[in-house]
Amino acid sequence: MFVCLFKTLVRPRLEYVNCIWNSLLEADNDKIERVQRRATKLVTSISDLSYSERLSQPQLPTLKHRRLRGDLIQVFKIMNNIDSVSNNLLCPKVPSLTRGHTKSLFKRRSCLNIRCKFFGNRVVDPWNCLPDSVVSAPTINSFKNRLDDYWKSIGVEVFYYKGW
Prior knowledge:
two-stranded antiparallel ribbon; 9 helices; 2 strands
């Protein structure tokens, strides 16, 4: 019951426009994560557990993981012309026969630290690290499934929170 209510009422507000707004300061991200931390403490059966254990019990990922996953899904939509955005948001790289996948992105140089947190810059490295089998998925749902399977295969900790 808690998971259903949390996913329906709380998480959409925490993730609203996360692809556009992603805080430059880690302290702001921690404040948002603190809301989920507090919400999981309200469940009496798991309230005495640590935060990472409280997330793994109902299988809730950290919001940082959800933001990264949302960013990669948005890149998939843009690269496959499912979402129409300005052409200069993402810059496709000239395909290489030796490295990466066929949909690699070029990372623009930025002189300011704030520019590094913009969507077009922050998604390039995670996107380019994905294998061709993931980025060449035919549909959004198959991309999501392949992304989750890939992260599980390389041992990405989804239900883990470092800090506090």
